Amino acid sequence: DEGLAPTRHPALPREAASLWFAPDVNGSAPGAPAGPLADLSRAVTLLEDPTKARAALQLLSRPALPRTAVDDYVRYPRARALRLTDALDEAAREFTRLAALPADHHLPEAAALALAELHQARGDEAAAVAVYEALVARPLAAPQVAWLRLGIMRRRQGDTPGAVEAYRRVYFDYPLSAESATAEDELTELSA
């Protein structure tokens, strides 16, 4: 009897972040990133604490990083660091450039959401709405997030029909999402 046998693979680490450096089948761990990619890794870790954004920005501004194969993935945390260090215009330019990339991976969506949040933080709700409206017009990994945020911004601007439209999209099109409950609450409040 030749049944299925378990596959041979290394044991998985307890923490998900450690999966990147999981040992190979022979049990030896690959080396940590070196050179410019080590700077990127360290900077992303530093950005988990907003008070360390300046240190992250210094690492992300080193000249060798933009010449790597992951240039756009350097620009996104750099834009986040710029925002956290109040270089808002430069952060907006970086987020805008990244949001305009072809939508074949998550980076343009994340950058567009960050750009809209930056506009909101600056009090430019009309610009935030424009970003959200452009975002929901294209395929997204998490459309319910963009629709919900669009509804919130439209409601703040006094566009009740537009807010209702956005909340309905979340509630009816993504009923099992966490955002659906918020959309339901908003719809209930608006109908009251």
Descriptive notes:
This protein is mainly alpha-helical and 192 residues long. The protein is 59% helix and 0% strand. The chain has nine helices and no strands.
In short:
The protein is mainly α. 59% of the residues lie in helices and 0% in strands. The radius of gyration is 21 Å and the shape is globular.
SSE succession: HHHHHHHHH
Molecular shape? globular
Query: Helix segment count?
Result: 9
Which percent range fits the helix content?
55-70%
Radius of gyration of CA atoms, rounded to a whole number: 21 Å
- From the helix content, strand content and strand pairing, which structural class follows? mainly alpha
Number of strands: 0
Largest sheet: none
Proportion of beta-strand residues: under 5%
In angstroms, what separates the terminal alpha carbons? 67 Å
Low-confidence segments: none
Q: Mean of residue pLDDT?
A: 88
Question: What topology emerges from the helices and strands here?
Answer:
Elements (H helix, E strand, L loop, with lengths): L35 H11 L6 H8 L10 H14 L3 H12 L7 H15 L3 H12 L6 H14 L3 H14 L4 H14 L1
